[in-house]
Every structure is written in C-alpha cells, then in structure tokens.
Amino acid sequence: MANRLPKALGELLENEKIQFMSELEQFDLLQLVKQAQAKLSTAKLLFEATDRQVGIDMATLMPGHKLVSECWKMAMLYRQSKSE
C-alpha cells in the first residue's frame, strides 16, 4: 500500500485542484512526489542489480519518510474536505 500512495497522490495532484493548498504548494508537492518515484525506481533497480546485497544509509531514507508523512497528512485533509 505504501508503494501505491505516491502514485495515487501524484495522479490526484496532477488531475484535481486541492482546495486547501495554494497552486504553488500543490505543484511543489507534486514535484517532490515525482522525484521520490524516480528515486524509488532507481533504488529498486540497484537493489535487484546487486542481488539484494546493498544497504541504504538511514540519512538517505529520512527525506522519503518525511514525504510519506506529508502525503498521508495531505490525503487525510483531502478526504475530510470531500466529506464536508
């Protein structure tokens, strides 16, 4: 499910105006999601290419965790705004 969040959120950010975000905030978040998708694809390729013998420094993972947290927060706010 976590792997689907950025893709679904990216589609949402591209296709709908999020009422509680400015256009710039929405654009910036979309760019972060796209960058994260690209980095994840690269990391998966490296992981498979090294026969799963590669490690990732925690400092490298932290921005991704922060983005996922931000995405979940935005998704909750979006669901709340749609139910009102």
Q: State the helicity in percent bands.
A: over 70%
Structural class: mainly alpha
Number of strands: 0
Low-confidence stretches: none
Mean pLDDT: 84
Largest sheet: none
How far apart are the termini? Answer: 26 Å
- Give the SSE string: HHH
Measured on Cα atoms, how large is the radius of gyration? Answer: 15 Å
Task: Give the amount of beta strand, in percent.
Answer: under 5%
Shape, please? elongated
- Summed up, the helix count is 3
Q: Would you give an account of this structure?
A:
This protein has 84 residues and is an all-alpha fold. The mean pLDDT is 84. It has helices spanning 4-15, 23-49, 58-83. The protein starts with a helix and ends with a helix.
Q: Which helices and strands occur, and which strands form pairs?
A:
Blueprint: H1 4-15, H2 23-49, H3 58-83
Helix pairs in contact: 1-2
List keywords for this structure.
single chain, 84 residues, mainly alpha, 3 helices
